[in-house]
Specification:
The chain has 474 residues and is an alpha/beta fold. Helices cover 29% and strands 23% of the residues. Strands 1, 2, 3, 4, 5, 15, 16, 17 and 18 form a 9-stranded mixed β-sheet that branches. Strands 6, 7, 8, 9, 10, 11, 12, 13 and 14 form a 9-stranded parallel β-sheet that branches. It binds dihydropyrimidine-2,4(1H,3H)-dione and zinc ion (2 copies).
């Protein structure tokens, strides 16, 4: 047999081309792309289907410590299963450093949670919450060498935020080691001030989450983050951008020649702050940071996806159960928005939302869809060209899409560990039906056939952003 698997008669899309071809797979990698491929142990007929690189979701939270009594809704088993069923073959969760503790300790525990549990490949970013001299001087540089080539820093949350000086010091490690810094841009002091005002007025329902984190809070922090990156002379990823004013900060920095990558997420296209108004505290289901804005901001984010302000479209899957004392309705969260854990599920619906609302509406073409959801993700985070594209020699990570299926999002049909979807009832056309991971069929015609443990940990190289002078990807 020449091939282990061939995918016949499909319309293949990469970030640059769309063409008809068969794909021959051998030993987990793409061995040939051409016509009339035969002589395979297994054959999939993809007539009338799109054959795309498996989705890569570089912004996912799984089993992350989230405060006393709060438990994230997904472990690695449920989180990667949900990702896989949504057309993804690699996800990148965050390994959180606990204050005062070494990063290696967090990594050891996080790897133990993932080991043997995953349905997709995984690779970890680090969250630096305590940039001590030891962390910055020894630990972080050694971890970058070991393939943990990206880390996130926070400008908000009392227990996570770094000062400007700490951010600069962390960026300096990135400069010296060739790592990539991701920043959560919201001004904590401004949020504190607004929370104080809201509480004084007895305004403590979920909707106050949105009004205590207005656009100015995000815009100011975005401006500061790109300025600090300019001072430290490092590339930067601004994660989960929700509005035009923050986009403009990114665009201005790019005009100055800075390498600044913008990421947006489904919630900023599909939700608004009105969703937080829900009756009976149901608005808690939509509490995430930055909060969803308004229809004008939604349009701005679509515009950013079309014009290339955004190079990444990720889920920011950060699931908490709603009707659960360890989730959104924890004893304090059920009384005051400040204690509602921030984050919403979405790893399984990310790709169908962008496909249905972006590709089928003509806002973006299929190649741009692939770039935003797989190829750029691989390039920016050091997985390319092994992952993120369909090319000879690349891992055979492939999602076959039926562009004609229309389904309503029903949480009961999703595969995560939460008890709701923020997109319940949303009608979407175009769904992944078959998913191949490293040459193995994991989902066949919508049915999970792969096994827990088929997904593996992948360490990463340096970001492609560090190569060349261009402030944007090709
Ligand atoms: N930031 C994230 O990236 N995800 C969820 C919560 C948050 O603040
Ligand atoms: Zn964040
Ligand atoms: Zn996140």
């Amino acid at each position: 047999m020449r091939f282990d698997l061939v995918i016949l008669n499909g319309t293949v899309a990469t970030a640059s081309d769309v063409f008809s071809a068969d794909i021959g797979i051998k030993d987990g990698v793409i061995a040939q792309i051409g016509g009339d491929l035969a002589d395979a142990a297994e054959t999939i007929d993809a007539s009338g289907k799109y054959v795309l690189p498996g989705g890569i979701d570089s912004h996912v939270h799984i089993a992350q410590p989230s405060g006393e009594g709060i438990v994230m809704a997904d472990d690695f088993e449920s989180g990667t299963r949900s990702a896989l069923m949504g057309g993804n073959t690699t996800i990148m969760p965050f390994c959180l450093q606990e204050k005062g503790r070494p990063l290696r300790e967090a990594l050891k525990a996080y790897h133990a949670l993932a080991e043997g549990q995953c349905y997709t490949d995984v690779s970890f970013h680090l969250i630096v919450s305590d940039p001590s001299d030891a962390v910055l001087g020894q630990e972080l540089p050694a971890l970058v060498e070991d393939g943990y080539t990206s880390f996130k820093v926070f400008m908000t949350y009392e227990d996570l935020r770094l000062s400007d000086g700490q951010i600069l010091a962390t960026m300096d490690v990135a400069r010296r080691t060739g790592a990539l810094v991701m920043v959560h841009c919201e001004n904590e002091d401004a949020i504190r001030y607004l929370i104080g005002r809201h509480e004084a007025e007895g305004n403590v329902a979920p909707t106050a989450h949105a009004s205590t984190r207005p656009i100015a809070v995000e815009r100011e922090a975005t401006h500061r983050a790109v300025s600090l990156a300019e001072v430290a002379d490092v590339p930067l990823v601004i994660v989960h951008v929700s509005n035009r004013e923050s986009m403009e900060e990114i665009e201005r920095a790019r005009k100055r020649g800075r390498k600044v990558i913008g990421e947006t997420c489904p919630q900023y296209l599909m939700l608004t702050s009105a969703d937080l108004d829900g009756m009976d505290w149901e608005g808690a289901k939509f509490v995430c940071s930055p909060p969803p804005r308004d229809v004008t901001s939604q349009e701005a984010c679509w515009d950013g996806l079309e014009r290339g302000v955004f190079d990444l479209f990720s889920s920011d899957h950060c699931p908490f159960r709603y009707d659960d004392t360890a989730g959104k309705l924890n004893p304090k969260g059920a009384k005051n928005f400040r204690h509602i854990p921030n984050g919403i599920p979405g790893v399984e619906t990310r790709l169908p939302i962008l496909f249905s609302e972006g590709v089928l509406t003509g806002r973006i073409d299929l190649s741009r869809f692939v770039a935003l959801t797989a190829t750029n993700q691989a390039k920016i985070y050091g997985l390319y060209p092994r992952k993120g594209t369909i090319a000879v020699g690349a891992d055979a990570d492939i999602a076959i899409w039926n562009p004609g299926i229309t389904r309503c999002v029903r949480h009961a049909e999703l595969h995560d560990g939460a008890d709701y979807s923020p997109y319940e009832g949303l009608e979407l056309t175009g769904w992944p039906i078959t998913v191949v991971l490293g040459g193995k069929v994991m989902v066949r015609d919508g049915k999970l056939v792969g096994k827990r443990g088929d997904g593996r940990y992948r360490s990463r190289s340096r970001s492609a952003l560090l190569d060349g002078r261009s402030p944007v990807l090709g």
